[in-house]
Amino acid sequence: MDDYEKVFGNKERIMVVFAHPDDAELYAGGTIARLIANGKRVRSIKMSSGGRGSRQEKISEKDLTRAREEEDKKAMQTLGIRGEDNIYLHLRDGARENNMEVIEKLVYQVRKFRPEIIITHNPEDMIIRWNKNEISNSH
């Protein structure tokens, strides 16, 4: 028995909660695909639509939000997540706070779906590491 079976073997409803579109695929895409292939229902929650996450200076936040959501919808379909299980909370990218408005939006989704387990970011670790030279050259 591998760890997958230990963690997910008896679970039917799994929620993944990430900051942006594409985070679910980067952090847990293989696990999500395996869960769905095993008949589990997976709901994906994106806190923001990533509208400020580009180095392209000529794209508006609105256009980037639209593009990232369209790309994300295709990725979620590829993984097998149903349209009704692909949720965007539309909080402004880079402006989230731990306040009651944010907590209420997420709690609503948890109560509505009633997941048996939630997959999310590790608050102690970051997947992105910036090259110091790249940062100093951009200012």
The number of distinct β-strands equals: 4
- Overall pLDDT: 84
Helix residue percentage: 40-55%
Strand order of the largest sheet: 3-2-1-4
Task: Explain what you see.
This protein is α/β, with parallel strands linked by helices. It has a single domain (10-137), classed as 3-Layer(aba) Sandwich (Rossmann fold), CATH 3.40.50.10320. The chain is 43% helix and 17% strand. The protein is built from five helices and four strands. Strands 3-2-1-4 form a four-stranded parallel sheet, with helices on both faces. Strand 1 (13-18), helix 2 and strand 2 form a beta-alpha-beta unit.
Task: Give a brief description.
The protein has 139 residues and is α/β, with parallel strands linked by helices. It contains five helices and four strands.
Q: What structural keywords apply?
A:
alpha/beta; Rossmann fold; four-stranded parallel β-sheet; 4 strands; 43% helix
Topology:
Blueprint: H1 3-8, E1 13-18, H2 23-37, E2 41-48, H3 61-79, E3 86-91, H4 100-113, E4 117-120, H5 132-137
Parallel strand pairs: 1-2, 1-4, 2-3
